[in-house]
Amino acid sequence: SAVISQKPSRDICQRGTSLTIQCQVDSQVTMMFWYRQQPGQSLTLIATANQGSEATYESGFVIDKFPISRPNLTFSTLTVSNMSPEDSSIYLCSVRGQERSSTQYFGPGTRLLVL
Amino acid sequence: KNQVEQSPQSLIILEGKNCTLQCNYTVSPFSNLRWYKQDTGRGPVSLTIMTFSENTKSNGRYTATLDADTKQSSLHITASQLSDSASYICVVSATNDYKLSFGAGTTVTVRA
Fold this sequence. Notes:
The structure holds two protein chains of two kinds. By secondary structure, chain A is mainly beta. Chain A contains no helices and eleven strands. In chain B, strand 4 (about 30-40) and strand 5 (about 45-50) form a beta hairpin. The interface between A and B is medium-sized, with 21 and 23 residues.
């Protein structure tokens, strides 16, 4: 199993500012994912962050808005840039083992409110 | 497009009663199906994972079934407890894609 922690757990931010969310895993993992969960919605994949390579972004998400760092196999950051109220959401870090049948573990999430 | 649909959207049950949640999917080629429990303000936690060859799997009072022919799954909660109040998410993966397809979830409220 993997234990994932995220910082901050929640934040209230002003429009136009940026917030960096940290994700720490208690074991080395190759594949790390960032998801967004808007109120009442299911999870939407923002990007896949593999160590040693550029993050791969899903349709509708761009690096300028959501820059990601993955400096090692246990840590990643997601920055939400130039925030607007539409960015208010829960942001979740997630990891999975190499096998397709591996359990995918999720962090506790960062609850973001943009005013 | 791979899709996962869950029903009902929400339900309320009395403590001690049973309930069943449904999941239909169109993900192909199918690899596995997972059920997650997400408490309010927390990240999803895995309950079960089933591959093509498995048609039932239990985790305590949670029992998941899978019919790969009809592309349907269910999650049965037995003798519900107040702590079962949460959102239950059905997640399906395809063999040719590392990404997961998420259902919108069923919100279960257990009342005393």
